[in-house]
Amino acid sequence: MSVFISATGTDVGKSFLSSMILAKYGVSLGLKYFKPIQTGDDSDRAAVMNLAGLHESRFLKNYYSFQFAGSPHYASELEGVEIDTDELARHLFSIRDENIIVEGAGGLLVPLTRKTLTIELIRQSEIPLILAAPVSLGSINHTLLSVEAIQNRKINFKGIYFIGTPDKTTEDNIETILEWTGARLLGCFFFNSKEKMSREQFQRECKLRFDPDFILMDAIQ
């Protein structure tokens, strides 16, 4: 079963979470990675491949790639390309029963075109969704709005994975979000976002701290 990884916003940790899933379960579950739309020169596909340490054949090519690091609707317009969201939705629907980690671009309400938001692509694809959420100040508002949008569209929502650098609000943020949304807690991974981890450090941390109760594995099967 494919799983769509989205987030409450940009730079929350979608690629980091995708990398952790692939590093720990890529071989045992035969997982592949797919980022349909990439904007900007920095390739999330390459970054995830590096951290996960899996063969290149497990990383599918982007459906669309744009040079400008911005919202897909605007980045595509700058290059005179129209994103065919209907075609992309059909493609995602066709792979929903395969074992693919699909990473979205930005947050749920990021426009893919002037008429279609990312969350509509997820709904049409019928791929179950995992939401990556931050753990610091501001998380409550962003996460509650995201979950409300998910629930309003009756998307198959697997739960929330909290990720990032903790602060004094973190413990209450997580408790409050779960109380208000009724969402399933899939796990938490705290780290210092200012410190870069090598592949070896990353994989060691995954083995030691990531998904110790196998809750997330249950969500992606």
Automatic annotation (TrEMBL):
Q: Which CDD domains match?
A: DTBS (cd03109)
Species source reads Leptospira tipperaryensis
Q: Which reaction does it catalyse?
A: (7R,8S)-8-amino-7-(carboxyamino)nonanoate + ATP = (4R,5S)-dethiobiotin + ADP + phosphate + H(+); (7R,8S)-7,8-diammoniononanoate + CO2 + ATP = (4R,5S)-dethiobiotin + ADP + phosphate + 3 H(+)
Q: Does the record's keyword annotation contain DNA-binding?
A: no
Q: Which HAMAP family match?
A: BioD (MF_00336)
Q: Which cofactor does it need?
A: Mg(2+)
Put simply, this protein is called ATP-dependent dethiobiotin synthetase BioD
Q: What is its main location?
A: cytoplasm
Keywords noted in UniProt: ATP-binding, Biotin biosynthesis, Cytoplasm, Ligase, Magnesium, Metal-binding, Nucleotide-binding
Name the NCBIfam families for this protein. Answer: bioD
Identify the metabolic or biological route this protein is part of: Cofactor biosynthesis; biotin biosynthesis; biotin from 7,8-diaminononanoate: step 1/2
Its biological purpose is as follows: Catalyzes a mechanistically unusual reaction, the ATP-dependent insertion of CO2 between the N7 and N8 nitrogen atoms of 7,8-diaminopelargonic acid (DAPA, also called 7,8-diammoniononanoate) to form a ureido ring.
State any GO BP term from the record.
biotin biosynthetic process
Q: Provide the active-site residues from the annotation.
A: 35
Where is the protein situated, by its record's location annotation? Cytoplasm
Cited PANTHER family: ATP-DEPENDENT DETHIOBIOTIN SYNTHETASE BIOD 2 (PTHR43210:SF2), DETHIOBIOTIN SYNTHETASE (PTHR43210)
List positions binding Mg(2+): 15, 44, 103
SUPFAM superfamilies to which the protein is assigned, alphabetical: P-loop containing nucleoside triphosphate hydrolases
Gene, per the UniProt record: bioD
Provide the organism lineage as a comma list: Bacteria, Pseudomonadati, Spirochaetota, Spirochaetia, Leptospirales
- Which residues of this UniProt protein bind ATP? 11-16, 44, 103-106
Q: Name one GO cellular component term.
A: cytosol
Q: Give the record's family classification.
A: Belongs to the dethiobiotin synthetase family.
Complex and partners: Homodimer.
